């Protein structure tokens, strides 16, 4: 037995965190920082419209960037309508359909607003809608938390290539992509700046394995 | 690659923190109406208990069920067949039934390590003789971190029958990995040979150590391991009363603790022997919390061993 080793510089969470595939430096910008702000503003307006004033809405983001987007949407809704919409996060790791294909991942945080989801109009928020598998996992996770009155989906980018019968109610930007491309959503809170980038073919297989 | 959790020493600093962080998230499941996750659907966990247990067996069973695994519980107590053969035969039977993990408690130190060589699935040590009990150490560390907010530099005092305690051994290993300072307090007769090489201080004077402790963990005197009927207990300590007077945690001793200090006990406890009833039920006591936390920590261990294509923690086969 030896003395305690020095704490590893890499936190355990980071060790298992899903890697950002591709190299953002090699990617071409699709939305600038100003575009991202405009798109989120528009989504907030649409949300108020389609939910008849945002009553009983609960925003639940899928970590990591979906959670950030949910917070931003809530802030914009508050700015436009003076309405405080609860926002939180919903970790889908334990509900994913590809769990058995990889090493177990570290869990992200699930943080449901105090009022819960029973009877609420839950809007799931994610950064990129791709195969639809994340959303399926989120629907399963949500069902274990309670029974919302209805569930809607908001995504910043819809890149196509659905593998399940799922569509979004609010789309920031439709970006037609080939399967070889990768989409990076960068948000200031997580990445230091706002942008949406379309990347080249490298590490596509990894991205594809993400539901 | 499938891995095992046989010893607290199998866990690196990162592994241990990963288990604690995962348990922190999984604890939320126990607060929901639907206390169930689909994560281990279709996996089979076998609880193989050759020794008495209430807490650990039910805790593992509940943890596996909350993750939707199929659970089979064997209580093989009182088997008179020679150890090696029985265990191996049982292991091969379980293997044939397609178990993905075996949670094993055995009175023989090292039984889980043997099991790990015989079967393809993961083995989790749920207590082997006087050797180790790694998930107990994990739930203790989890409880300390929740109550006190940190583990690094925490002064942890473990008091009692260190000689027969797998809980003490696993705690010393895990806590030293996590950067806590451990002091063991016991009569010389209840300290193991070679304790000087453990990453812990040793003291015989409880009153001197208490004011300098953030955590006091009391251990039961394991009479059942002192000869077949416990009749050799007198060789270890003169009488229960004298033991209690020198090493028991009573109200007077608790008063000398720092304001934030907590009192822990892995159970089962003998009220009036190592711990006074008022202390066990007092505000500093985490004894009931430890049991609740045990489920979350064991869910984390099962998820990290079985949840993916290979294991995220533990020692290789």
Based on Cα principal axes, name the global outline of chain B: globular
Tally the helices of chain B: what do you get? 11
Q: Determine the mean pLDDT of chain A.
A: 87
* Uncertain spans of chain A: 1-20, 203-211
Mean pLDDT of chain B: 92
Summarize the SSE layout with pairings.
The complex is a heterodimer of chains A (211) and B (317).
Chain A (H helix, E strand, L loop, with lengths): L11 H5 L11 E4 L1 H18 L6 E5 L3 H17 L5 E3 L31 E9 L3 H13 L4 E9 L11 E5 L7 E5 L1 H4 L3 E5 L4 H6 L2
Parallel strand pairs in A: 2-3, 2-4, 4-5, 5-6
Antiparallel strand pairs in A: 1-8, 7-8
Chain B lengths: L2 E2 L8 H14 L17 E6 L5 H12 L3 E6 L7 H14 L4 E6 L4 H8 L3 E7 L5 H15 L6 E5 L6 H12 L3 E5 L15 E3 L2 H4 L5 E4 L21 H8 L3 H4 L7 E3 L12 H4 L6 H20 L8 E2 L1
Parallel strand pairs in B: 2-3, 2-4, 4-5, 6-7, 6-9, 7-8, 9-10
Antiparallel strand pairs in B: 1-11
Q: Top keywords for this entry?
A:
heterodimer; A: 211 residues; alpha/beta; Rossmann fold; three-stranded antiparallel beta sheet; 8 strands; globular; disordered N terminus; disordered C terminus; B: 317 residues; 2 domains; five-stranded parallel beta sheet; four-stranded parallel beta sheet; 11 helices; 11 strands
Description of the structure:
The complex is a heterodimer of chains A (211) and B (317). Chain A is built from six helices and eight strands, in the order H-E-H-E-H-E-E-H-E-E-E-H-E-H. By secondary structure, chain A is α/β, with parallel strands linked by helices. Chain A has a domain at 34-177: Rossmann fold (3-Layer(aba) Sandwich), CATH 3.40.50. Chain A has a five-stranded parallel β-sheet, with helices on both faces. Chain A has a three-stranded antiparallel β-sheet with strand order 1-8-7. In chain A, helix 4 (133-145) links the parallel strand 4 and strand 5 (150-158). The radius of gyration of chain A is 18 Å and the shape is globular. Chain B is of the alpha/beta class and 317 residues long. Chain B contains eleven helices and eleven strands. Chain B has helices spanning 13-26, 55-66, 83-96, 111-118, 134-148, 166-177, 206-209, 240-247, 251-254, 277-280, 287-306, and strands spanning 3-4, 44-49, 70-75, 101-106, 122-128, 155-159, 181-185, 201-203, 215-218, 262-264, 315-316. In chain B, helix 4 (111-118) links the parallel strand 4 (101-106) and strand 5. The radius of gyration of chain B is 19 Å and the shape is globular. Chain A binds chain B through residues 1-5, 7-8, 10-13, 15-16, 91, 94-95, 99-110, 140, 144-146, and chain B through 9, 12-15, 17-18, 21-22, 25-26, 28, 32-34, 36-39, 152, 173, 176-179, 197-199, 303-305, 307-312.
């Amino acid at each position: 037995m030896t003395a305690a080793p020095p704490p590893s510089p890499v936190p355990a969470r980071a060790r298992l965190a899903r890697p950002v595939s591709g190299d953002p430096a090699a990617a071409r910008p699709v939305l600038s920082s100003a575009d991202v702000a405009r798109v989120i503003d528009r989504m907030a307006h649409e949300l108020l419209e389609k939910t008849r004033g945002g009553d009983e809405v609960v925003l639940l983001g899928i970590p990591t960037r979906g959670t950030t987007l949910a917070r931003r949407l809530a802030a914009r809704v508050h700015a436009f309508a003076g309405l405080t919409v609860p926002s939180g996060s919903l970790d889908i790791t334990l509900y994913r359909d590809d769990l058995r294909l990889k090493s177990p991942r570290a869990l992200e945080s699930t943080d449901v607003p105090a009022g819960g989801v029973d009877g609420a109009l839950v809007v799931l928020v994610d950064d990129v809608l791709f195969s639809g598998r994340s959303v399926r996992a989120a629907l399963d996770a949500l069902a274990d938390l309670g029974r919302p009155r209805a569930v809607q989906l908001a995504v910043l980018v819809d890149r196509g290539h659905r593998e399940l019968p799922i569509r979004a109610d609010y789309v920031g930007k439709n970006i037609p992509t080939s399967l070889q491309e990768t989409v990076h959503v960068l948000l200031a809170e997580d990445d230091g700046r706002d942008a949406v980038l379309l990347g080249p073919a490298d590490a596509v297989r990894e991205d594809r394995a993400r539901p | 690659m499938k891995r095992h959790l046989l010893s607290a020493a199998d866990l690196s600093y990162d592994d241990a923190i990963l288990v604690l962080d995962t348990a922190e998230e999984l604890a939320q499941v126990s607060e929901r109406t639907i206390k169930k996750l689909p994560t281990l659907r279709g996996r089979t966990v076998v609880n193989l208990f050759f020794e008495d247990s209430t807490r650990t067996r039910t805790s593992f069973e509940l943890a596996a069920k909350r993750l939707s695994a199929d659970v089979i519980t064997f209580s093989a107590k009182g088997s008179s067949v020679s150890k090696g053969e029985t265990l191996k035969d049982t292991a091969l039977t379980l293997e044939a039934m397609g178990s993905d993990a075996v949670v094993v408690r055995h009175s023989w130190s090292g039984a889980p390590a043997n099991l790990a060589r015989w079967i393809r699935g993961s083995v989790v040590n749920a207590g082997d003789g006087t050797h180790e009990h790694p998930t107990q150490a994990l739930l203790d560390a989890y409880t300390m971190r929740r109550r006190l907010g940190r583990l690094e530099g925490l002064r942890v005092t473990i008091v009692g029958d260190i000689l027969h305690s797998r809980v003490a051994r696993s705690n010393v290993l895990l806590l030293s990995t996590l950067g806590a300072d451990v002091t063991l307090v016991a009569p010389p007769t209840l300290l193991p040979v070679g304790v000087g090489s453990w990453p812990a201080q040793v003291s015989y004077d409880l009153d001197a150590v208490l004011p300098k402790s953030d955590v006091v963990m009391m251990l039961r005197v394991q009479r059942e391991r002192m000869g077949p009927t416990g009749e050799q207990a007198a060789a270890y300590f003169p009488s229960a009363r004298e033991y209690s007077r020198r090493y028991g945690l009573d109200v007077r001793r608790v008063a000398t603790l720092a304001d934030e200090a907590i009192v822990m006990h892995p159970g089962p406890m003998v009220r009036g022997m190592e711990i006074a009833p008022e202390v066990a039920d007092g505000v500093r006591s985490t004894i009931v919390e430890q049991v609740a936390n045990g489920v979350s920590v064991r869910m984390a261990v099962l998820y990290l061993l079985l949840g993916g294509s290979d294991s995220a923690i533990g020692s290789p086969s």
